[in-house]
Amino acid sequence: AQRVTQPEKLLSVFKGAPVELKCNYSYSGSPELFWYVQYSRQRLQLLLRHISRESIKGFTADLNKGETSFHLKKPFAQEEDSAMYYCALLYSGGGADGLTFGKGTHLIIQP
Amino acid sequence: ETGVTQSPTHLIKTRGQQVTLRCSSQSGHNTVSWYQQALGQGPQFIFQYYREEENGRGNFPPRFSGLQFPNYSSELNVNALELDDSALYLCASSSLTRDTQYFGPGTRLTVL
Description:
The complex is a heterodimer of chains A (111) and B (112).
Chain A: E1 3-5, E2 10-14, E3 19-21, E4 24-26, E5 32-38, E6 45-49, E7 60-61, E8 72-74, E9 83-93, E10 96-101, E11 105-110
Parallel strand pairs in A: 2-11
Antiparallel strand pairs in A: 1-4, 3-8, 5-6, 5-9, 7-8, 9-10, 9-11
Chain B: E1 5-7, E2 10-13, E3 19-24, E4 31-37, E5 44-50, E6 53-57, E7 64-68, E8 74-78, E9 87-94, E10 102-103, E11 107-111
Parallel strand pairs in B: 2-11
Antiparallel strand pairs in B: 1-3, 3-8, 4-5, 4-9, 5-6, 7-8, 9-10, 9-11
């Protein structure tokens, strides 16, 4: 069965420091991976999708099939980056295309 | 463009009761997926509807059922509620089954 692991429940960094949120996955098929973000009192929203290879709000993520990872990075953290971040894997099973999410990492950017 | 909406925002039920949650998909989207998010966990896939048919489901029992209507809005029904059903229920819509999913604000269900 597919699985997404986010090893850090909480990550605290200072403003201006680099950020890396870790995500590892296990999946027998061809992975399609996403990062979703949830700011305080807002809905879950897409941050980026690996196939689009876009940089959103300064964040990037590279799919590493050898290490089965999709870590999210930003070179200089900003206070508005404080939020809950979820890594998700799109899988096809039983006809449906559902997302499997990790448990999330709470990112806190300290001033 | 109207985003995904869900109703009600929150509700409280007692064990054994039945509940219906509603979702309106984003304009132009024909696929709706439902997720359950327990406290401190990531969302878990319940099932997906595509063109009014259930397209597949995750590891949830049959007492979780749904519908999708011709306008692509959707309902999630849960029968015989259990305490562990207390969670945030999220609806997400997409233009195709494998396209990016856009989430609604969720319905917070508390089962007493």
